Amino acid sequence: MEKILDIAEAIANEKGLQPEKVLEALKTAFVQTAKRVINPNFAFEAQVDEINKKIKIIQTITVVADDDEKLQDEETAPAYMAISDARSYDDQVELGDQLQEEHDLEDYGRTAASQLHREIEYHIQRMVEDEVFSKYKSKVGTIVNGRVTRVDSNNATYIEVDEIRAVLPMKSRIKGEVFKVGDVLKAVVRRVNMDKENGIQIELSRTSPKFLEALLELEVPEIEDGSVVIEKSARIPGERAKIAIYSTHPQVDAVGATVGVKGVRINSVSEELIGENIDCIEYTNIPELFISRAMSPAIISHVEIQQDEEGKNVKAVVTLPSDQKSKAIGKSGINIRLASMLCGMDIELVENDSMTPENAAVEQEEEKDGVDALEALFN
Q1: Residues 322/355, Cβ–Cβ less than 8 Å
Q2: What pLDDT score does 1 carry?
Q3: Nearest 5°: CA angle at 103, between 102 and 104?
Q4: Helices H, strands E: what count in the chain?
Q5: C-alpha to C-alpha distance for 124 and 287, rounded to whole angstroms
Q6: pLDDT of residue 373
Q7: Comparing C-alpha atoms, which of 56, 39, 37 is closest to residue 109?
Q8: SS3 152
Q9: Dihedral-angle region of residue 259 (phi above 0 means left; psi in -120 to 50 means alpha; beta otherwise)
């Protein structure tokens, strides 16, 4: 067991782990080995011998009264010693004192050596897994790049991301996307799990609103540096999305910065999302105004917010000109669905008899042209 501290340092360098944590794992491995090859009921402690670069195994024995019940229990008895027996070694011993006895695992032969090897291997592997788990747990909601290694019969796509393999389920792919082995793709880390049977499992997504937000952060410097903040987002993957943004700097136009010159920034994100149309909306904490903006391109006349008994906004009654209803609903109801998702409440449309000034002017002009045509016909 010589030079075990050098071994700990070598393992730390090879695996990219902290030497202190590796040393703690080795101490745990020594304690577990001692319990297995000496006695599982003994109380062991691993101590570091800095001078000899060794780990010593110390058995701790607690001194109790002669009639203590722990001495009668076969399982607990090995960890305790009656005070009368302890005083035969040291007459200064008192109740509750702890005596220590050193054990050398080398005295237990090959059994101890092989058991220690397995324990060290197990604890180091667990530490590596914990490090990887923590690393990717912190990446939830961020974009990763990877190469496709396999597509199974359920169309789940397996992607190699750095030192680990992640999965992009069929449900998390944008409609119409097809991947093959060797393709390189971007996705957002949606979930990270770890269990004893399957180890670390990383689930990716290309349909999450977080993926849209992460792509915008990569493409728009103002979002990355915090000048523009994405407050909310909603998506119907592959079709349309709405994002609510605001500026933290008086000289930065949130919508203009996000869209870019001639739409170059927003179009770049749209291409990654298979042509998904993205509406940029300036966020406001006034719910009526925010809903009015979220219903764009429809022009809204009035918004009334309804609340539940707890004072929570649950429904918005939106009044709008009759000629704006189709725009408010959108193709297959997509516009009103996204607005509802973005605002976090149901939206009810109520038509009034009026029309927008632009459409009213067009209709009056068409009526005038019709009258003039009739007059010309009869004259």
Answers
A1: yes
A2: 47
A3: 125
A4: 12, 15
A5: 53
A6: 47
A7: 37
A8: coil
A9: alpha
pLDDT at 74: 65
Q: What is the mean pLDDT of residues 143-163?
A: 91
Domain spans, the chain = 4-136, 140-204, 208-283, 298-379
What fold does the segment set 140-204 form as a domain? OB fold (Dihydrolipoamide Acetyltransferase, E2P) (2.40.50)
User: What is the identity of the amino acid at 276?
Assistant: E
- Identify the pLDDT of residue 82: 78
Most distant CA atoms of the chain, gap in Å: 137
- Bridge partners, residue 36, by sequence: none
Backbone angles phi, psi at 10, to 5 degrees: -65, -40
In this prediction, residue 126 has a pLDDT band, given cuts at 50, 70 and 90, of confident
CATH of domain 4-136: 3.30.1480
Query: What pLDDT, in 10s, does the model give residues 80-115?
Result: 777 777 777 767 777 877 777 788 888 888 888 899
Q: Does domain 208-283 have CATH number 3.30.450.20?
A: no
39-93 per-position pLDDT tens digit: 787 788 888 887 777 888 888 877 788 777 777 776 666 677 777 777 777 677 7
Amino acid (one-letter) located at 116: L
pTM of the model: 0.71
Cα 46 from chain centroid (whole Å): 37
Q: Is 45 exposed, middle or buried (0-12, 13-18, 19+ CB in 10 A)?
A: middle
